[in-house]
């Protein structure tokens, strides 16, 4: 770990220690938790368990689309030799949908855009069939595969992992279901520890035993049942290094009962599904601590609102009640962080700021925007 990382850890540890003393002295922790609890609505947990009924519905949809493609594609050619699915008119796939009743169609565009014909080349057709065939087999056997493993099993067809993942997302978009519903899983990188247990595949997963390095969050968390916790709150930290440092500093005992989580940078689907389910099942306040830079702010917003290109089918990846504790630009002033530990904002930081600004304006998060504007004004970050 670099000297800068050590200084970052030391600074945040100092901040948390200071916060801990203040909370204990003024008994403010319970008040903070209670105030957030009062704003958590009563939620009927959405059924995400991959039960047989849901699996059968998905398989029926996948098989229907596969049959539709093969029936309408074979023998259909345009004059220039490119095969084309009949009656599909779209400049891109993000407006194309499929149902068994309507077949493949384009959603109505409120802006009245005139779409050009979308051609499906032989290679695209083969890639679609590969994805749908694999999904059908996985659903039939109730098996799973990571997107990475699937790519390497069809590396010649896709050519690159990016192309493979894009086709998976395209099929997901057309069927209007998350990729995990087709039993393709993203590699999980998040960790959690603390007062939590649930059943997964018939076995009890107890996060209270993972007090050293945390428990690796499973990409199959959506199948978990019997969630149990007496935690007062959930704390999410941006970096894996900080997560492990806080565990070694016994934060679970000092501020517990609690749950500590990290997405190890930009959170993956597994971590975000885990947090969404955690929020729904135990309904406790959730707080985020990130680096004091635009990327940290964006990461925090991803936990709360998701990413810009997400559709409604990914509502299970957000936690609307999450609170951003910091590190804020105002904290740099409050805790008198020395100039030698601060870095100048980069062009990449400014690009991330524009992304964050769009989120703030869309969801009317004026307090967030004020913090990042201050960061731009001082032109410094703390990472």
From TrEMBL:
Pfam families (UniProt xref): TOP6A-Spo11_Toprim, TP6A_N
Requisite cofactors: Mg(2+)
GO molecular function (one): ATP binding
CDD domains reported for this sequence: TOPRIM_TopoIIB_SPO
Coiled-coil stretches: none
Keyword Thylakoid in record: no
Keyword Cytoplasm listed: no
InterPro entries: Spo11/TopoVI_A, Spo11/TopoVI_A_N, Spo11/TopoVI_A_sf, TOPRIM_Topo6A/Spo11, WH-like_DNA-bd_sf
One of the protein's GO biological processes: meiotic DNA double-strand break formation
A GO cellular-component term linked to this record: nuclear chromosome
Enzyme Commission number(s) from the entry: 5.6.2.2
Entry protein name: DNA topoisomerase (ATP-hydrolyzing)
